[in-house]
C-alpha cells in the first residue's frame, strides 16, 4: 500500500472495491459486501434515498459498516504563508520523511512481500482462508502510517456510484475512508474465512493523467466534465 497522494484536494484514485474472489486477484483492491439481491440494485435504490435536493448525498448510511472508518477531518489551515524558519523546518521534516520512506521500501519486509502465482492460486480456492492476508494488509498500512506522512486513505467504489464523481479531500471527507480503520473494521465483520459476504479484501491503486490539468484550483480537475473516470472505476469495483 502507498500513502495516498492529495492533488488539488482530489484523492488519488485508490479505490476500495467490492469484487468477487474469482475476479482478477492480480490487483490490490478492497472488496465489499454483495447483497443477496444484487449489490448494484440495492446501491442504486439507496443512492436515491441518500441524495439531497442539490443532488449531493446527505446521509452516509449507504456506507453501512464502513462508516466506522470515515477519515477524520483535517485541522483547519491558517491560510498564512509559513515564515522562513517554518519553511526550513518543513524542509527538514520532508527530508526525514523521504529517508524513512526510502528505507522502508528497501527493507526485506517489503521487497520479499511478493504474491507468487502459487499464493494467488491458493486464494482462488473456495475454502481459502483470507484472515492472514487481512492481518498482513493491516500491518502494512500501520507501518506506512507510522512513517509520519499523511495517513493512507481510500475510496469505496460504492461511493463513486453514489457521488457520480471522484470525491475531493477535505470537501467530501465523509465519503473518504481511513485505510487502517477500514481494515480494523473488516477484521470485525469478516467470517471464519476472512471474507465479508462472498468477498475478500483488495485495494487497487490507479496511476492516471489529469483530464483537466492547470494551476487554477477552480478549474483543474483529474476527471472529465462528465466524470468518465468515476463511472469506469465504479464499474471496475462492481
Question: Can you offer a commentary on this structure?
Answer:
The structure is a single chain. The chain is α+β, with helices and mostly antiparallel strands. Helices cover 37% and strands 7% of the residues. The protein has helices spanning 39-50, 84-105, 108-111, 117-123, 131-145, 157-163, 179-189, 228-237; strands at 6-7, 10-11, 14-16, 153-156, 177-178, 203-205. A 4-stranded mixed beta sheet has the order 5-4-3-6. The chain has a two-stranded antiparallel ribbon with strand order 1-2. Helix 5 (131-145) runs antiparallel to helix 7. The two termini are 21 Å apart. Mean pLDDT is 78; it is low at 1-13 and 17-54.
Task: Tell me the span between the first and last alpha carbons.
Answer: 21 Å
What ranges have pLDDT less than 50 throughout 5 or more consecutive residues?
A: 1-13, 17-54
Report the count of strand segments. 6
Task: List the secondary-structure elements in sequence, H or E.
Answer: EEEHHHHHEHEHEH
Evaluate the radius of gyration: 19 Å
Work out the strand percent: 5-15%
Mean pLDDT: 78
Helix content estimate: 25-40%
How are the strands of the largest sheet arranged? 5-4-3-6
**How is the biggest beta sheet arranged?**
4 strands, mixed
Shape label: globular
Class computed from helices, strands and strand pairing: alpha+beta
Oligomer: single chain
Q: How many H/I helical runs?
A: 8
